[in-house]
Design brief:
It is a single chain. With 115 residues, the protein is an alpha+beta fold. The protein has one domain: HIT-like (HIT family, subunit A), CATH 3.30.428.10. It contains two helices and five strands; from the N terminus they run αβββαββ. β2 (25-29) and β3 (37-43) form a beta hairpin. It binds guanosine-5'-monophosphate (5GP) and zinc ion.
């Protein structure tokens, strides 16, 4: 989608530190980390949020997204130290980039409830 930051990163037009990539998704390091480990799992196909994915695309896209997440957890060692997954959906939930992504946060103790 033209004008979308994450679409530009996926297209290689904006640089990012990539941890993982396959045909369905990429995983990059967040530019403004909120924890010692802060990665973003991003589907290559542009949808603004989970609820925007049409039924016909959901199984393939979500499976690809979860697979990239799973690979990353096991490759980084986050799995042994605890981690939090966050999907901000909508401006009032704190979403600032309107291309679906899952935050992976780890490497520090977390608070509950989140702010
Ligand atoms: P959101 O606020 O939409 O849930 O998450 C967007 C995330 O993208 C933020 O954590 C922000 O730090 C990150 N971000 C924004 N611009 C860039 C960028 O150019 N490169 C990378 N790697 N992350 C970015
Ligand atoms: Zn996009």
């Amino acid at each position: 989608m033209s004008g979308c930051l994450f679409c530009k990163i996926i297209a290689g037009e904006i640089p990012a530190e990539k941890l993982y990539e396959d045909e369905k998704a990429i995983v990059i390091r967040d530019i403004n980390p909120q924890a010692p480990w802060h990665f973003l799992v991003i589907p290559k196909k542009h949808y603004s949020a989970l609820h925007e994915i049409p039924e016909h695309d959901a199984p393939t896209l979500l499976c690809g997204l979860m697979n990239a997440l799973h690979q990353t957890l096991n490759a980084t060692g986050l799995n042994s130290n605890g981690y939090r997954l966050v999907v901000n959906s909508g401006a009032s939930a704190g979403q600032t980039v309107f291309h679906l992504h899952i935050h992976i946060l780890g490497g520090r103790d977390m608070q509950w409830p989140p702010g």
